[in-house]
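[Structure tokenization] protein backbone as discrete codes
[Encoding] learned vocabulary of local backbone shapes
[Protein] chain in single-letter code, fold in tokens
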Amino acid sequence: MNDFYPNFYDILGRISKEASQESIKKAYRTLASVYHPDKNPHDAFNAKEKMQELNEAYKILSNPKKRSEYNEKLSMYEEQQKQNNDNSKDTNNGSQNHDTKYNEDKTTNSKNWNFTQSSNFNEAPKSQNDYSWVAPVAVAVVGIGLLAILYTTGKKK
């Protein structure tokens, strides 16, 4: 279950597959209150991404029909993963096959969901494309440019 993307059970706080509808709802509401963009104005982009992931996970897991379909796909994936691990142990004498993760991501046929960097749900997630530094740097560069213009025009008088 580690490498299945997206793993909706992990997105909702690592709840179990047997979690009740009430547990799913509670986990969703708890995380939604933490990651809502209005509560994270300093990191609205990442908060918005996280809310989209939470909404998608809740949409699937809260619907019994969609949840059972998802569980079937997850079970098939886990079985395939187990077979791949058994085969790689036989061919590599216990060493890991480093190409397996890439192939697994291709075979999931879904978006590239990479939660390995922020697997701790108690801290704010970090996006791979974290551009939160761009705006302050741009403001500083523009400010320095304006100061330079003011300095040079003031010196000519």
Remarks:
- The chain has one domain: 8-130.
- The CA atoms of residues 35 and 50 lie 7 Å apart.
- Residues 8-130 form a domain with the Helix Hairpins fold (CATH 1.10.287.110).
- Helices lie at 8-11, 21-35, 44-61, 64-92, 100-107, 134-155.
